[in-house]
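Hypothesis: this fold can be encoded by more than one sequence.
Test: take the structure tokens below, design a sequence, compare later.
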């Protein structure tokens, strides 16, 4: 067990200010003046879009809040900055580790190089990275998910719900991670009803162009698909997905959310009746579990995968119109069982 560090409100404010300064380019001397005891708790550094994306980053924050409540320790969560480099990311993680946070998690594949560098500098600190499996280190946990499996079930739901025989997929950035969402979704649609057409589109080629952080781009893409008769649109686009959901609601068609249960997101409440379901991956659980493993003195390392079998990817049932549709639920249950048993092999590209 770690030695628990409880700090006063004033102390927390001071630490937060120091973190903010270091994240914005404060010197290593400034950072090193912070606590070096290694007795602080979980710290996370957000991906593009930051906290408030109603999706990926907010799920990580939920895991941090759960750990904070359960273990009663100090935590930190740091926003990205526009145009930052890998060196900037690494400095952010190094600053958190130097101040005594453990574990330190980079939220998103873009942190791969930064996590690798920081982990080498702080071998006694446990690091985590969400959505990347390339960092091989004794003190790094690669927190990854079988997103294609949940996306397959989203495809089943879309194929069973469309009235126009046309559905849409909007990916944030054209990268292998989002290809998994597209591949699973398209396979789920086609296996359910080969007559249904899938319109697929990516918003940008790189994250720097705003594919994960531009609701206006998501809205425009969804509107284009809806004009082509798509009446169910699935977005795997982070914050940009809000625009897809907004377009679906405005045109009275279905949206399928991603990562978090977007039907329950407060910022999306006015659109929730148009959110059929969400293809979820439990980033919150993965973040919390890594923190718990450190707290228990048995840190997770290596590839830690969540899938349908572990329950860490799934479809949400919050919308009653979705949950109460017996035919739809039966189709999803059958597909889920076949995926878990191995009868259905879901493509990841």
């Amino acid at each position: 067990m770690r030695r628990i560090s409880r700090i006063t409100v004033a102390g927390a404010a001071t630490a937060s200010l120091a973190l903010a300064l270091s994240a914005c380019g404060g010197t290593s001397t400034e950072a090193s003046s912070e606590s070096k005891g290694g007795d602080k708790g979980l710290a996370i550094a957000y991906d593009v879009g930051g906290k408030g994306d109603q999706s990926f980053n907010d799920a990580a924050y939920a895991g941090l809040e759960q750990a904070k409540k359960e273990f009663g320790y100090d935590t930190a969560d740091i926003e990205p900055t526009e145009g930052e480099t890998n060196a900037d990311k690494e400095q952010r993680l190094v600053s958190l580790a130097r101040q005594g946070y453990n574990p330190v998690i980079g939220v998103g594949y873009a942190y791969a190089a930064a996590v690798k560098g920081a982990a080498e500098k702080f071998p006694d600190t446990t690091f985590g990275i969400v959505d990347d499996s390339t960092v091989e280190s004794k003190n790094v946990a690669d927190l990854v998910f079988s997103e294609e499996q949940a996306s397959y079930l989203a495809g089943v739901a879309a194929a069973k719900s469309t009235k126009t025989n046309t559905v849409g997929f909007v990916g944030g950035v054209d990268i292998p991670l989002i290809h998994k969402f597209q591949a699973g979704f398209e396979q789920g649609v086609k296996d359910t009803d080969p007559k249904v057409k899938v319109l697929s589109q990516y918003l940008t080629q790189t994250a720097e162009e705003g594919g994960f952080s531009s609701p206006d781009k998501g809205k425009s893409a969804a509107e284009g698909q809806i004009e082509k008769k798509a009446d169910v649109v699935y977005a795997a686009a982070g914050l940009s997905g809000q625009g897809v959901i907004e377009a679906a609601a405005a045109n009275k068609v279905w949206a399928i959310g991603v990562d978090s249960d977007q039907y329950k997101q407060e910022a999306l409440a006015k659109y929730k009746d148009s959110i059929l379901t969400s293809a979820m991956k439990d980033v919150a659980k993965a973040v919390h579990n890594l923190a718990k493993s450190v707290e228990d003195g048995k840190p997770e390392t290596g590839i830690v995968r969540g899938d349908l079998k572990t329950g860490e990817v799934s479809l949400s049932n919050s919308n009653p119109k979705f949950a109460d549709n017996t035919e739809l639920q039966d189709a999803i249950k059958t597909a889920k069982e076949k995926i878990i048993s191995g009868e259905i092999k879901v493509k990841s590209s």
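The radius of gyration is 20 Å. Residues 176-192 form the longest helix (17 residues).
Hypothesis status: open.
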